[in-house]
Write a structure and sequence with these properties.
It is a single chain. By secondary structure, this protein is α+β, with helices and mostly antiparallel strands. Helix content is 38%, strand content 28%. It has three helices and six strands. The strands form two sheets. The protein has a three-stranded antiparallel β-sheet. Helix 2 packs across helix 3. The chain is globular and about 35 Å long.
Length: 80
């Protein structure tokens, strides 16, 4: 992670070395869907919240203590 502010975050993946911006609204909208529906897929994040960064958003949300995940297929679960 290179920078975080109120607008979002900038990450630099080791694989490409290129900066990627993930907006706060992308993260918040995916989180809100997960919280309401209790389940969220990688495809849903890509289709509805972040076409360019769904895997990074999954990785971020999977770190939350209230979230479990499954790898095949990639899916998040709200566990509380």
């Amino acid at each position: 992670m290179k920078a975080v502010d109120e607008a979002g975050m900038i990450i630099v993946p080791r694989s490409s070395g290129k900066e990627r911006t993930i907006t706060r609204s992308e993260i918040e909208s995916a989180f809100n869907e997960l919280w309401v529906s209790r389940e969220l897929t990688l495809a849903s994040i890509g289709d509805h919240h972040s076409e360019a960064n769904p895997s990074y958003i999954v990785a971020l949300l999977a770190q939350l203590p209230a979230v479990d995940f499954m790898v095949k297929p990639i899916r998040l679960f709200w566990k509380i």
